[in-house]
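Data availability (excerpt). All sequences and predicted token strings are deposited with the supplementary files. A representative entry, FlgO domain-containing protein, is shown inline so that the format can be inspected without opening the archive.
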Amino acid sequence: MKKFYFGLLLCFWFFLASLFAQETKMTVAVMELDAKEGVSVGVASIISDYLRTQIVNTDKFTMVTRENMETILKEQNFQISGCTSQECIIQVGQLLGVRKMFTGSIGKVGTTYLINLKLINIETGKIEKAEPEKVKSEDELLSAVSNLANKMAGLSTTPEILLPPPQIKASQPKPIVSLEKKVSPAGDMNWWDYYGEGKIFAQLGKLEEAKNAFLGAISLESRDRCKARTYGMHFIEYFPHRELGIIYYRFGEIEKAKEELKKSISMEKSPKAQEYLKLME
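Structure token line:
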């Protein structure tokens, strides 16, 4: 009988511990990063999505997804476009019912990319935390976003190590950026991390890196579809075969491009895949 009561007490303790852990997670939302000089709105939007993923991966916050944000604000007839002032962001946070809002900007000064991120307390209206991150190339943007998410969550970050460029002989092939080194705080990269990186690299014209990223996504989740669940109730449009086909098309590898686009259409038809396939007929 004592063992029974002890087991019951232990279960109750674990239940309370799990409730406490859930309560300590802060409910937040992320505004789209404001695209400044040298950065397109498309790239800023993709970086914003990647930021949301990295913030969730810290396991310190409960995130209101972009889709849910849009639905709630639409029901309230609130126009979020152009909402960059602190007063407007606080109003968005109040409508969403979150405790804090992430907001910031991404721009380019000379050859340096600069990302500024702020955490605003909706109740007090004050900026609780502000962190910058600067990098010298597009390839380092994703690592910078991961660092920012970790800084905001109070986790350790990857230090910036400045090394001299490697001496490469003319006969050696050009090195390819390794995606294996870019890992989430939980460990390995998820398929949506690879997919997000692929889209960013494609936007930046980094075709070889984009190809590797989409291949990485396909190796973990191979089915193209309009609605793919990533974490919690967060869904994204996921078409890695289609995007890989477009990369092959840009490389001039038409047969490979056709093969990937046809695979995509066989799983889920999309106008984008069909249009690119028509270009090659």
